[in-house]
Design a protein that fits this description.
Layout lengths: L3 E4 L5 E5 L4 E2 L6 H20 L5 E7 L5 H7 L2 H4 L2 E7 L6 H6 L2 H5 L4 H10 L5 E5 L2 E6 L12 E6 L13 H10 E9 L4 H9 L2 E7 L6 E7 L1
Parallel strand pairs: 4-5, 4-8, 5-7, 8-9
Antiparallel strand pairs: 1-2, 2-3, 6-7, 9-11, 10-11
Helix pairs in contact: 1-2, 2-6, 7-8
Length: about 220
C-alpha cells in the first residue's frame, strides 16, 4: 500500500496512506497529539496515581514511526523510573521513512537523533537496552495475536481508526488489551467513537471521555478496575 510523507499543522511530519485517506498521526499535529493522548493523558495520569513505582511496562499497539517511543524515552528523568517498552507492529516502516520524519530536529535535543536511530535499528523480537532506564522490545505482531496476561501498566492504543480498520476496535481486541494490563492499568487512545467506548465497557474497562488533542473534541481513557 502506497505511503506518503506529509507535514502536519504543528510542523512535525507523519505518513499518509492515500488509498485510505488516513494518517499515522493527526494532520493537526503529530507531536502534540502524541504528547496529549499518550504521555499526558496516559503515562502522566498513571504515574500520578502510582508515584512510587520504579518500573513501568508500556505496550504500544502500532509502533509505526516510533514517535511515541521517542517521546516516552524523555520521560524517564521526569519520573525517575525505568521503562520496559514493547511496540507491536504488523507492518514496520522502513528506516528511510523513519528518518524522513525529522522528529529529532523538531524536538531540539542533541541526543534525539541518536536515540531515534537506536529505536529503529533495534532488532525485532528481542529486548534492546536503549539506555540504563529504557528497554525496548519490538514485535512484528498483529493486534489479533496479542496474548499477554497482566504484564503492562499502560497501553498506547494507536491503531488506525475504525473507519478503515473496524476489526481493531472490537470486544475481541479490547478483551486482549484488558487481559494484558495489570489491575489499575490504563489504556489511552485518540479515538472517541461510541462503538469503541461501548466495546471497552463491555469487556470490563471503566471508560472516560476526555478532551482530545487539537483537531479532536474528545478521546478515551480506559482503566482496568
Amino acid at each position: 500500500m502506497k505511503r506518503e510523507i506529509i507535514t502536519t499543522a504543528d510542523g512535525s511530519k507523519t505518513i499518509h496512506i492515500p488509498e485510505w485517506n488516513e494518517q499515522y498521526h493527526s494532520k493537526h499535529g503529530a507531536i502534540q497529539e502524541a504528547r496529549h493522548v499518550f504521555l499526558e493523558t496516559g503515562l502522566s495520569h498513571y504515574m500520578g496515581k502510582f508515584p512510587e513505582q520504579k518500573e513501568v511496562a508500556i505496550l504500544e499497539m502500532g509502533f509505526g514511526t516510533g514517535l511515541n517511543a521517542l517521546l516516552t524515552y524523555y520521560e524517564v528523568a521526569k519520573y525517575n523510573v525505568s521503562f520496559n517498552y514493547v511496540g507491536a507492529e504488523a507492518y514496520p516502516v522502513s528506516l528511510e521513512e523513519a528518518s524522513a520524519m525529522e522528529y529529532a530536529r523538531q524536538l531540539q535535543d542533541g541526543s534525539a537523533e541518536m536515540i531515534y536511530t537506536k529505536l529503529h535499528n533495534a532488532s525485532w523480537e528481542q529486548e534492546t537496552k536503549i539506555s540504563d532506564n529504557f528497554k525496548l522490545t519490538k514485535r512484528k505482531q498483529r493486534f489479533e495475536d496479542i496474548a499477554d496476561s497482566e504484564v503492562f501498566d499502560v497501553i498506547y492504543f494507536d491503531a488506525f481508526g475504525p473507519r478503515v480498520q473496524p476489526t481493531l476496535w472490537t470486544e475481541e481486541i479490547f478483551t486482549k488489551m484488558f487481559n494484558a494490563l495489570r489491575p489499575s492499568g490504563v489504556l489511552t487512545t485518540y479515538c472517541a467513537q461510541g462503538a469503541a467506548r461501548r466495546a471497552m465497557q463491555t469487556v470490563g474497562f471503566q471508560v472516560e471521555r476526555l478532551p482530545g488533542p487539537p483537531g479532536k473534541r474528545e478521546m478515551l481513557r480506559a482503566t482496568k478496575v
